[in-house]
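Hi Y.,

Following your request, here is the sequence exactly as I used it, all 632 residues.
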Amino acid sequence: MLLFCILSGAMFSQSFNLSADSIKQTLNKNISNPLFYQELETSFDKIGEDYNSKNSIVCYAYILCNYRKEQYNKAIKALYYYDKIEKHLSKSLRKDLCMIQGDINKMNSNFIMSLQFFWKANKLSHQLQDQKGVMNSYQEIGVIYRDVGNYQKAEEYLNKAEEIQKLHSINLNNKFWLNIHFSKLNYLQGEYQKSRKFLNFSLNEKKTEYKNELNCYVYKEFANLFELLNQPDSVEYYLSKIINDYGDSMRFSYIGLDALNHMAILSIEKGDTSKAINEFWEVFQNAKKSGITSFAIESSVALRKYLNPKDFRYNEVSDYFIENYENMRVNHSEFEKYAIQIEDLLQAQEEILRNEEKLARRQFYFWVMTSAFLVFVILFSFAFYQMKKNKLQKLKLKLLNENLFNTNTKLDRFSSVVAHDIKTSVLGIKYNAQRLLEDIEITKTNSSELTEVLEECNKMNEFIEFLLVSAKTKKLSYIQHESINLKQLISEIEKNITKTHQNVDYEFDTQITHKALYGNYHEIKQLLNNLIENSFKYREPSRKLKIQVKIESNSNKTNLSVSDNGIGISKENQNKVFNLFAQGDSETFLHGVGLGLNICKNIAINNNGKIWLESQKNVGTTFFVELPNSLN
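Below is the corresponding structure, written out as C-alpha cells. Let me know if you'd prefer a different format.
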C-alpha cells in the first residue's frame, strides 16, 4: 500500500519537481519499515527488462533505500540499469542518482567515475536552481581532489560550497559536513589546530537526524588527527567509540569499516599480529557484503602479507586481490588528466548551452514581436472596418428614423382624420337614435332596438378612443420622462374612480412607500388607470370588490402592483391577456374591447420596464409592473 502511494505520483514526476519531492519524503518516512522494504525489493525483482515510467520509480526507490541502509552491493546492482531508467525520471531524481553513483565510486576509490557523476549532478542542480544540490556537488568534488592530493583544488571547491551554504542559509547537517571536510584538508596540510577547531564545531552542532552516525564521522577524524599528532591512546579511544558504542550495524558501514581497518593497523603497530589478522578478516568479509571494494582490497593486501599461505583464508583474499586490484589502483597523474578533460568538456557544454539559450531567446523575442505586430495589424484592420461599418449603420439608422418619423407623422394625421370622420358618423347615428327614442310612437314598438344601437355607438366611440391612445403609446422616440409625484397621481386616479363607479360597492386601498417615480406622467397614469378599470370590469358581483395598489422602490427599481378579488384568469389565458384585442374568460362580464392591457404592456416597455400577472380563477388577479428609477 505504501509503495502504491509512491507510484501514484510517478506519472507526474517528469513535469513537476514537487512530485519528486513527494516521492523522497515518502521514502524517508518509510525507509526503516521492514514491510515497506520487502515490498519494494519484491517489486524491483519483478521488473525484468520492462523499464517504463512506473518501474523506473521503483528502481530509483530501491537504489535510494539500499544506499541509505548502506547496502551498497544492492544499490550498485540496481544502478547497472541507470541508462534505462534515466529517460523516465525527472531531473531532480536523476540528480539524486548521480550523487549516489558519485559517492559509491568515491568510497571504492574510483575517483574519475566519481568526478564525472558529481559534475553531472552539479549541472542538473544548476538547471533545477537547487542551491543545496549545487553546494553538495561542489563539496564532493572538493573531497575527491583532497583524496587524490590536490589540496589547492580541494580548497577551491570546498570554499565554493561554503559560500553557497552561507548565502542561502542551507541547513545544519550540510554545515556539519563542510566542517568535517575542512578539518581533514587542514590536518593533511599540517594545520592541526585549525583541523581540531573544525572538528569541535562539527561535534557541537545541533543535528536534526542521524545524530549517532554523524558523531562517528567526527570521532574518526579525531582519530586520524591524533594519529598524526602521535597520540595512540587517543586514536584508540575514538576508534573504540565508533566500533563499540553504536551497535553491530556500524561494522558494515563505510565509517565502521574505516574504523575497524584502522584498529587492525594499530594492532600491527603494537605487535599483536593475531588480533590484527582477525580484524583485517572482519573488514574483508564485511566490506564484500557491503559492496565497499576499497576496504576489501586494502584488507586483502594486509592479509596476504600477514596470513600463512596454508591458511584457508589466504587463497580467498589472494583471488579477490588479483581480480579487483588493477581496477582500483589510483594513478594520480591519470586522474589529473581526466579531471581537466572533464572540466573542459563541461565548460564547452555550458558555452554551447548558453549560446543555444541566447539563440532560443532571440528566436522567441523575434516571434513574439512578429506575432504582436501581426495581431496589431489584424486588430487595427478590424477596428477600422468596424468603425466604417458602424458609421454606415448609423447613417442608415438615421435615414430610417427620419423616414419612420415622417411616416408616423403622416400616419398620425391620417389616423386623426379617419378617427374624426368615423367619430362624426358614429355621433350622427347616436344623435338620430336618441331623437327616435324621444318619439313615443316609435319607442313603443322599437325601443329595445334603438337602445341597442345607442350601446353599440358608445362601444364604437370607446373603441376609437382606445385606438388613438394605443397609437400614441407606441411612439417610443418622443416620450418625455420626468419625476412623478406618486401620491398626487393616485389621488387623481381615486377621484376619477369615485365619479365613474358611484354605484359599485368597492374598497380601494393604497400602500405607497416611495414618493416619486421617473417616467412619463400621462403614460403611468394611463397604465394604473387601465389596471384599476380592469378590476371593475371583471369583478365578482356576489362579493364586495377590493382593490389594493402597492408601490415600493429600491435603489434601482420601482415595483407597482394592482390586486383585486375579481373573477380571476384561467392559466391557459394568462399568457394571452396582453395581446391586442384579447378579452376575459367570461362572456357574462365582458365590457372591454381588448385594448387596455395591451396599452399597459406598451407603456411599460416605453418606460424601460416590464409587466406580468399572477391570477387564480374565482379568487382574484394581481398585475405587477417593474420600472427603472432612471432612464439609464
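The two ends are 65 Å apart (CA to CA).

Thanks again,
Q.
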